[in-house]
Structure formats: C-alpha cells, structure tokens
Amino acid sequence: MEGSDTDFAVGLDRSLSLLSWDAGKDSYKIRTIHTIDDHLPNNSANDGKADAAGNVWFGSFDRDVSKSTGSIYCATASSGNCIQKQDGILLSNGLDFDGTGG
Fold first, then answer.
1. In a domain, 2, yes or no
2. Range of the structural domain that residue 64 is part of
3. Is residue 100 part of a domain?
4. Which end of the chain, N or C, is less packed with Cβ atoms under 10 Å?
5. CA 37 to CA 23: how far, in whole Å?
6. Is residue 98 part of a domain?
C-alpha cells in the first residue's frame, strides 16, 4: 500500500486481502478486505493494479480458463467499496491504464 513498507494488497482465492508483513519477526497477518465471485467456486482473484487515485483494480478468472466467468473489479480508495465493473472475462492479466493514469 502506498506509503507503507509492510502492507500489501493481495489477491487470495476469491478475495482482495491486506497482507501486513513484519520482516523483523518474519511474520505476517492477512485480513480479507473484499470477497468476490462467491457463486463461482472455480473462480480466483487475478492480476491487479492501483490507479493514480489509489483505487485497486483487479480481475477474476475461471481456474480452468475454460469459461468466461471472470470479472474486473475496482476497490475504491474513497469509500472502500468493491464494485464489479465488467463481467464475461475469460482471463484478466497485465492490467494497464492510459497515459492519464485512469
């Protein structure tokens, strides 16, 4: 997370989570921030990236990559809400933004 050397946004199974790592103690804690695709047990969170406003954009995909059941999500920095922006995705990978950062 911006400004932190110990906190990281990570995708785990069907969730966006916060991993807090203490390198000095070689320990970590994981806290689920948002759960996604509960109705799709074969889906998993995938690649993500923060935009210029601090929102975290990430995708989900079918682990067999055989069905377009994935989505693109945005976890907003201002409200903390996680919003599905697009469904019908086969595989989201290498998310990128235009030159404006959006």
1. no
2. 7-89
3. no
4. C
5. 32
6. no
Give me the mean pLDDT over the 94-99 stretch. Answer: 80
Residue at 94 is within a domain: no
Work out the angle at residue 46's Cα, subtended by the Cα atoms of residues 2 and 74, and round it to the nearest 5 degrees: 55
Q: What is the model's pTM?
A: 0.84
Dig out the tokens for 71 from the structure: 């989505």
Whole-angstrom Cα distance, residue 1 to residue 20?
10
Q: How many structural domains are present in the chain?
A: 1
The three state secondary structure string of the chain is CCCCCCEEEEEECCEEEEEEEECCCCEEEEEEEEECCCCCCCEEEEEEEECCCCCEEEEEEECCCCCCCEEEEEECCCCCCEEEEEEEECCCCCCCCCCCCC
What confidence tens digit (pLDDT) does each residue in 9-38 have?
Answer: 888 899 999 899 988 888 999 999 899 999
